[in-house]
Fold LEA_2 domain-containing protein.
Amino acid sequence: MGYLAQKGCSSVLQLGLIFLLAILGVCMLVAGVFMTYKYGPNSHEQPLVLKLHSFSLSNLSVSNSLSTASWDTSFLFANQDSTFEIVIERYESLLFYINQSDALSCAPVEPIHLGTKRQKLVQIKFNSTACAGEQPYIGDHMLEEIRRDGEEGTLNFKLSMDLLVMYQRGLLGWHYHLKPDCGDLHVKFVAATGNGGLIGDGTKACLVSFPK
């Protein structure tokens, strides 16, 4: 009889402990949601600013599947916030030809730390050796479109990035998966040399938004 009473008491204690842990978990979840809503980066204007400073290409020839082509870009990564620090972990940058869903080339994005109200100019180079040499496959239809536009003297590209970003505020930190987009990059192209440069002066702002 005493054994059964002890066993019943132990079961009650276990159920009580599980109940308390469940309540604690719910409280922590609610607290996390509240802290994110009140103090998280998505309650402010996007702290991360991304601008394309330069874009040029060299040695582009559609006869060799673009294997010798090289695209040189420079981006300004800036933190416009006075509260959050930003840490961008290593991810990819992708180069597309306009109106195409398949990438032309990829390049790694090295880790970047931005303190409050700080900025950094970063060079990103797209070529056959980037991304450990594993570049996207380029189909004949894309090569034909590039060849046709190149003969007319203008090529059109867009850039996108796949970034894992941490916004840090004191001991608190929030991770977001961001996909900035830099579209409508019109390039003056000289088919005889395979070289080209961005049309127009000044920097180009890229769209950086929080995931919905």
The mean pLDDT is 83.
